[in-house]
Amino acid sequence: MSDLSGIPRSANPVRIAILQGDARASADPAVEFSTILGSCVATCLYDPVARIGGMNHFLLAEPPSHKSQTDFDEHYGLFLMELLVNEMLALGAAKPRLKARLYGGANLHERLAPIGSANAAFARRFIRDERIALVHEDLEGHQARRVNFQPTSGRVRCLVAKYDAVPTDKPLRRPQSACGEVELF
């Protein structure tokens, strides 16, 4: 599924993969950001007037309570949200004009902690607290997603993996051929 159909392509598109812990911004109309999400969340921000946008991809919402404020790193949502906003402002975006689209936050397996829901709640709260307009969200559920984002237009294509495409009835096991002794040196 996609929330916008048919993203027009540049003659020579430049696709940039956004991995866990990344935040990138661009004003280049040829750039398209792309990421794959499970329980992680990606935020797509854009300024429709300046035609500047960016994407981040965070693994966890916030550090555990026992960590200090100086322990923030690229895996946490707070760090990556601030980094994304600041990179966009440095390129000429204006915070009052920013629009947000949120993706991911799936709870891929019912027996695991709902990390995806915690990530989704954090992203919604951050966008609300920073007074950034939330124009679309595709959060939570049980599906992995691939997100392609054109930062200058704000257009997004989100492809969702079918829930039954991921086997959940059997625990994953290492194939017998992969088992053996390991020599440490």
UniProtKB/TrEMBL annotation:
Gene, per the UniProt record: cheD
Name assigned to this protein: Probable chemoreceptor glutamine deamidase CheD
Pfam families: CheD
Its biological purpose: Probably deamidates glutamine residues to glutamate on methyl-accepting chemotaxis receptors (MCPs), playing an important role in chemotaxis.
Family note: Belongs to the CheD family.
A GO MF term: protein-glutamine glutaminase activity
Keywords: Chemotaxis, Hydrolase
Species of origin: Alteraurantiacibacter aquimixticola
Gene Ontology BP annotations: chemotaxis
PANTHER family, per the entry: CHEMORECEPTOR GLUTAMINE DEAMIDASE CHED-RELATED
EC number: 3.5.1.44
Catalytic activity: L-glutaminyl-[protein] + H2O = L-glutamyl-[protein] + NH4(+)
CDD domains reported in the protein's UniProt record: CheD
